[in-house]
User: What shape does this take?
Amino acid sequence: MEKVTVEYDVYTFDELSEEAKEKALETWNANNDYMEIIDTFVELLESLNLPNAKIYYSGFWSQGDGLCFEMSASEMHHIDLNVLEKSFPKEYWEWAHQFAEKMNCVTAIKEDTGVVVTSTHRGQYYHENSVIIDVEPLEVLEEWRTWEKTEEVVIRLFRKLMSEMYAFLEKNYNYYSSMECFQEIAKGNEWRFLKNGEQFD
Assistant: This one.
């Protein structure tokens, strides 16, 4: 048996040609599915009394792109705002906080009956208008006019939440897929590359 040693010329990111840098960035983006953010979204929805939500998204270049989530019937209770602030980074709970405050107002009004929300995806697109959102009281109400207004408010809040989640995801995509971000990551991790931009280690 003969052992053969193969030598490679390796480069730091700054030493690469512009073409090689673009290839390295393209490979990075192709392998980045942003599941860490989606996983955090799932945890965040649980803190908003929306457990077992299934998130769908597409992006970030078509008019039909967006984000939505499905969930089985979830009874809305008071949302603890302190849990949001302690459990998640500020960039997450800032927009979730608005949803929580307004839903708390709704559940306070309907405290005697409760509010149950169900979200079901329909169609081939994934955005806030591609779901059917059903809002029901736990008990039969006499004041149906008041309830209809409440139902409209809740549906608008849920669609806005989905829109805010997509905007957050898109913002992160634009940053993490940028050359500036990738350069910082490559330098911080002291990555080395082959001449053509392929990552060596």
In short: The chain has a mean pLDDT of 87. The longest strand covers residues 66-76. The chain is about 50% helix and 15% strand.
